[in-house]
Design goal:
Number of strands: 2
Number of helices: 4
Largest sheet: 2 strands, antiparallel
Low-confidence stretches: 103-108
Radius of gyration: 24 Å
């Protein structure tokens, strides 16, 4: 699983090759193993949030395509007999309504190339620059002072 996820993230165009991505096991749960995938990006060319989101998606899709399944939560419910009869009737209606529809997991997912735009958003910086250029007298930002 670590190798599959690592290969998927390394193949993304915004992932830097040097230093290369890496994986570690960060936790072992009752029914799962949590794998942390780490990769470097150049934030001058890629937005961190977008790149992170696409990397998670790529790793998840690669793991599922390789046969790994994500654990589902298990709940224990106690029902009284009146509610059980109502639920059974509702289940019959649901099954007949969804016959013939493909299960969500069997539908093809959108390709990673369709949403690969990870360029940083610059609209806030552009707005700040235009406002500062327009009204320099009341500008409280001082370019001569260090920013901490």
């Amino acid at each position: 699983a670590m190798a599959v996820a690592l290969d998927a993230v390394a193949a993304l165009p915004f992932t830097l090759k040097d230093p290369g991505p890496d994986t570690i096991i960060s936790a072992v749960g009752d029914s799962n193993i949590v794998i942390k995938i780490m990769a470097w990006i150049d934030q001058r060319d890629s937005d961190y949030g977008k790149a992170r989101s696409l990397a998670i998606r790529a790793a998840k899709m690669a793991l599922e395509n390789a046969g790994f399944t994500l654990p589902e939560p298990i709940y224990r419910l106690r029902l009284d007999s009146r509610l059980t009869a109502k639920l059974a009737a509702a289940d019959d209606v649901t099954q007949s309504a969804t016959e013939g529809e493909p299960h969500a997991a069997s539908r093809p997912a959108a390709g990673i190339d369709e949403v690969i735009d990870v360029r940083p958003d610059t609209h806030i910086e552009e707005k700040v620059h235009s406002e500062r250029a327009r009204d320099q007298e009341s500008d409280l930002l001082d370019n001569e002072r260090p920013v901490e």
